[in-house]
Write a structure and sequence with these properties.
Blueprint (H helix, E strand, L loop, with lengths): L2 E3 L5 H4 L6 E7 L11 E7 L3 H10 L6 E4 L5 E3 L4 E7 L7 E4 L2 E5 L4 H10 L2 E2 L11 H7 L2 E2 L2 E2 L4 E7 L5 E4 L1 H4 L13 E8 L1 E2 L2 H18 L5 E5 L9 H7 L6 E2 L2 E3 L6 E4 L5 H19 L8 E3 L15
Parallel strand pairs: 1-2, 3-6, 4-6, 5-20
Antiparallel strand pairs: 2-3, 7-8, 8-14, 9-15, 10-11, 12-13, 12-14, 16-19, 17-18, 18-19
Helix pairs in contact: 3-6
Length: 317
C-alpha cells in the first residue's frame, strides 16, 4: 500500500501505487549538506528495487524525476524541485564482500564502502573515504580524490532505465571521462561491483586515517558546504584559479568562498540557495575574465528559483 503524508489532490493522485512512501512538499534543504533550498513537490522513498521499478513503469511521462542520495554535492534552489524526487535510502545501502569484489547498493556511503574494503584487507578503495557522497553519485560523475577515480576500481554497475527495466553496464558502456559518464541521465543507478587488490589491513587503515586527516586540515569539513565546487580544468587546480582571481573569502549574503580552501562554497548560517549560486557564478565570471578559463560546476544544482513561475505551482496536477 502507498504511504503518503499530507496528501493533496493533484500530482500525487496521478502516481502509481507503491510499497514505499510518498511525502508531499517534503523539505529537501534539511537533506543537503548546505542546509538550504525549497521542497520536493513529491518525495518518494522506494521500499526496494522492485518498488522503484514499479514506480518508473507507472510514472506519467510528463512528470519529471530527480534522484538524490546523501545530499553532499548538491544545491537545491529556493523554489524547490517540481515533480518527483527519489531518495535512495537504507534499502539501497547494502554492502557485501566476495574475495576482492565489493558489491554495494547505490545508496551506500562512499566512506562506508572504503571501510568495508579495509575490513576485508582489500586495497585500492581508500580514496572513497575522501569523497562525501554515495556510490550512486560516484558512478554518475566518476567521482575521484587523491589521484584515483571510481573508474579505477569499477567492475560493473546496475541501473534501472526510464521504463523500470534492469540494465547491467560494463566499463565500456559507462563511458568514463573526468567527472563524467555517458550513461543516460534518466537511468537510475541501483548498485555496483568494485574490485581492488589484496592488501595489508594495517596499511589500508593508515592510508584511510591519513586521507581523513588531510581533508580535515585542508578543507572546511565542519562547515555547511557541498564539497568541491568546480571541476579542475586540464592541467590546473580550480582553487588556484579562484585565488588568482581574488575570490577567496568572497561573500554574497550568507554564502562565502571558504578562506580555508578556495574551491569550497559555504553557508555561514543565513545563506539562501540563490546566495550560494550567485557566489559561484561570480567566481566563474571573474576567473574567466582573469584567465580565459571556464570553470564548470561540480556541485549538482537542481530545482527552480523561488521567483520562477514553474516553482511548484501545480503544473503537474
Amino acid at each position: 500500500m502507498m504511504a503518503a503524508r499530507h496528501a493533496t489532490p493533484g500530482l500525487i493522485d496521478r502516481l502509481p501505487r507503491i510499497r514505499g512512501r510518498y511525502d508531499v512538499m517534503a523539505d529537501l534543504g534539511k537533506m543537503t549538506w548546505f542546509r538550504v533550498g525549497g521542497p520536493a513537490e513529491v518525495l518518494f522513498a522506494p521500499a526496494d528495487v522492485e518498488d522503484l521499478a514499479t514506480f518508473l513503469k507507472g510514472r506519467p511521462e510528463d512528470v519529471p524525476v530527480t534522484v538524490v542520495g546523501l545530499g553532499s554535492n548538491m544545491l537545491v534552489r529556493d523554489g524547490g524541485v517540481p515533480g518527483v524526487v527519489i531518495h535512495l535510502g537504507k534499502p539501497f545501502s547494502t554492502i557485501t564482500v566476495d574475495d576482492l569484489t565489493v558489491r554495494c547498493g547505490a545508496g551506500a556511503v562512499d566512506a562506508t564502502v572504503a571501510n568495508s574494503a579495509r575490513d576485508a584487507a582489500i586495497t585500492g578503495m581508500e580514496f572513497l573515504t575522501g569523497i562525501p557522497g554515495t556510490i550512486g553519485g560516484a558512478l554518475r560523475m566518476n567521482a575521484g580524490a587523491y589521484e584515483r577515480e571510481i573508474k579505477d576500481v569499477f567492475t560493473s554497475a546496475t541501473a534501472l532505465d526510464a521504463k523500470g527495466e534492469i540494465q547491467k553496464l560494463d566499463f565500456a558502456e559507462m563511458g568514463f571521462t573526468y567527472r563524467h559518464t555517458n550513461v543516460a541521465e534518466e537511468w537510475i543507478f541501483i548498485g555496483a561491483e568494485l574490485t581492488g587488490t589484496k592488501g595489508d589491513r594495517h596499511e589500508i587503515t593508515a592510508r584511510i586515517k591519513a586521507i581523513r586527516s588531510e581533508r580535515e586540515q585542508s578543507q572546511p569539513t565542519q562547515a555547511r558546504t557541498g564539497g568541491s565546487t568546480f571541476s579542475n580544468p586540464p592541467g590546473v587546480k580550480a582553487w588556484a584559479l579562484i585565488d588568482a582571481a581574488g575570490c577567496r573569502g568572497f561573500t554574497v549574503g550568507g554564502a562565502q568562498i571558504s578562506t580555508k580552501h578556495a574551491n569550497f562554497l559555504i553557508n555561514n548560517g543565513t545563506a539562501t540557495a540563490k546566495d550560494i549560486e550567485a557566489v559561484g557564478e561570480t567566481v566563474r565570471r571573474r576567473v574567466k575574465e582573469n584567465t580565459g578559463i571556464d570553470l564548470h560546476w561540480e556541485i549538482r544544482r537542481i530545482g527552480v528559483e523561488a521567483s520562477d513561475p514553474a516553482a511548484l505551482t501545480g503544473a503537474h496536477a
